[in-house]
Amino acid sequence: MVESVKSADRVLDVLTLLSKSMRGMTFTDICSELGWPKSSAHGLLATLQSRGFLDLNESDRRYSIGIRTWEVGQAYLGGQDLAQDALPYMQELSDDINETVQLAVLDGRENVYIGKVDAMQPLALASRVGIRLPAHVTGVGKVLLAGLAEPTLDGLFAGAEFVKYTPKTISSLARLKRALREVRASGYAQDEGEYTRGVYCIAVPILDEGGATVAAMSVSVPDVRLTDDLKERMLSGLLAKAAGVSGRLGYRADAWNRAADVPVDM
Q1: Domain check: are 232 and 101 in the same one?
Q2: Which of 206, 217, 218 is nearest to 251 (CA)?
Q3: Is the pLDDT of residue 95 over 50?
Q4: Residues 6 or more apart in contact with residue 88 via CB below 8 angstroms
Q5: Which of 90, 117, 154, 203 could cross-link 139 (Cys pair, CB 3.0–4.6 Å)?
Q6: How far apart are CA 24 and CA 26, in angstroms?
Q7: How far apart are CA 173 and CA 155, in angstroms?
């Protein structure tokens, strides 16, 4: 096993922590959350700020992710070209149905959002690019997990705690496997308030040249705007746009027809 470097671990810890905080965090909050002594944290945070990896808001003294961190992330996405390829399709879909469209990839047991197009609605989904959520509680996450072989899935969730965020959250590996079998059979996944009450999401896979699931595209909508007609439009629109993105990645098959023939469970 490679021995970790304490200072590098601390840099990664603070970047990971702040990547999950939409409002940023104060110096005291960071030290408390990470269990750092304040005496040794000042220099590290000051260095990260001076190099542009962190920003410090002088008015409320909150640290947040800086422009250099964004640039590093963009370099990763630029190498993938995935978010760039998907964005025009996501924009078209959002324009068609006026709801939020998101793109995510899998990282361990979490899905990470790498693209988002917001709806022009007074009640909108509070999320952003870079946010990560437990994959078993989201539509995109279940699509991504459904693309894994069962031994890989077993290893990924060995010893995992299934936190219940709402009464509808999947709470065991056995239940997750049943849900993923349904996703594979239908070609899409649904999140009916499993992470956030009152939010419905439907998601479909993005496939590469070899037919592997490399990402998932979703549409999210508050329950107050949800109708049977909108569900159908969300699914048909997602299948069409995801097929377009997959085609740009080299995928050439009519697997979408199988999913398109399956009605959404109302």
Answers
A1: yes
A2: 206
A3: yes
A4: none
A5: 203
A6: 7
A7: 11
**Alpha carbon distance 77, 91 (integer Å):** 18
Do 62 and 192 share a domain, yes or no?
Answer: no
Residue 11 lies in domain: 6-70
Tens of pLDDT along 129-177? 888 899 999 999 999 999 999 999 999 999 899 999 999 999 999 999 9
Tokens of 5: 């470097």
Do 68 and 209 contact (CB within 8 A), yes or no? no
**H/E element, 192:** strand 189-192
Element (H, E) at 111: strand 110-117
pTM of the predicted protein model? 0.68
Mark whether 94 and 61 lie in a shared domain: no
Last residue of a domain, one of 18, 37, 70: 70
Q: What DSSP line would sit under 123-187, residue for residue?
A: S-----TT-EEEGGGSHHHHHHHHTS-HHHHHHHTTT-----SSTTS--SHHHHHHHHHHHHHHS
Best CA proximity match to 217, nearest among 120, 109, 88, 73: 88
